[in-house]
Design brief:
InterPro entries: Rv3660c_N (IPR059050). It comes from Haloechinothrix salitolerans. This is Rv3660c-like CheY-like N-terminal domain-containing protein. Pfam families: Rv3660c_N (PF26563). The protein has about 325 residues and is of the alpha/beta class. The chain has two domains: about 110 residues, Rossmann fold; about 200 residues, 3-Layer(aba) Sandwich (Rossmann fold), CATH 3.40.50.300. Helices cover about 35% and strands about 20% of the residues. The chain has 13 helices and twelve strands. The strands form two sheets. The chain has a seven-stranded parallel beta sheet, sandwiched between helices. A five-stranded parallel beta sheet has the order 2-1-3-4-5, sandwiched between helices. Helix 7 links the parallel strand 7 and strand 8. The longest helix has 16 residues. The radius of gyration is 21 Å and the shape is elongated. The protein starts with a strand and ends in a 9-residue tail after the last helix.
Length: about 325
Amino acid sequence: MSCFVLLITDPTSMRHEIEQYARGVCLVARPPHQLTGEDWNRAALVLIDAQAAPILRDRPQELPARDAVILLADPEDQDEPDLYRHALTLGAAHLITVPDGSGALRTQMSMLAERPALVVAVLDPDPSGEVGTASTASLALAGTAAGEHLGLIDARPTRLSLHRALQRARYDAPVASSGSLRTLFVNEQQAPPHDAVRDAMTDLARRHAVTLAHLDPHQSDTVAVLGGVDLIIVPVRARSVTAQATRSVVTAACRATPHVHVHVIGDAADTDVVEAVAAGIGAGYPSMTGVAPPDMPEESRHVDVQLADTSHHRQLWEVVARYRPRTSCPV
């Protein structure tokens, strides 16, 4: 097999949707009536639009059995009994609704990328968004210091702008290492449309090893963006780690992608909570780390300490490194 994904579909809208999850992967689209046996056999992964499935089933010559076949369906069609008959007949191992199940689809395709790119969303449940701003800036600082080439999207206007956060941390591009950072900042008070954010994420991910997106989990359109994300980091203060707002954001994130990490930041009074989180017994979330930065006497200095603590930057970056896709195709 070759390292390309075959998408069998007629509607151009489906191709546009799938392209947003195929970063770093060669995607070949074929209408069902133009499918060749060579395409079917050589593809590393075959995606079949449910609308094209009846046409494939009616081919004069039955398609040979093969592994790595996924049937794609619209959420409105997921209860149709024919979907399961299509899946069984065509040998599909998975039935995925798009965009609802796009996180699982992205995971499947990222393993086939020659140079897997990673898109990380930072979702701060607090209405102020300041911890999320500082965490996004910290990730950018750590990544460039490690020599990575990053894209950064600030799609959440907050009182502390991401641009100021980078300046306050004495960020000076280009850094001493070989890393680079390309930034797209929000200038208006309202978050940009989700289509613009998703297009920007896709564009940056084509050219950068890691793309960071600072998003507002309370915006109704945010969920439409998360399907193309590989990892979601939820940064919270220790006192809010088990709050309902945090649990709601984590639950929504888990529906979008299997990789969700809660990062808890405490102060001297919260040391026990942070240690419990770091030990993995905190709030029962899928993945957690905790840190209690030193010298944090007042909450007003919380963001400054977070931005100045380079060891904290590295700890956050280790989370990203842990979830980076690994290619399964020979290169």
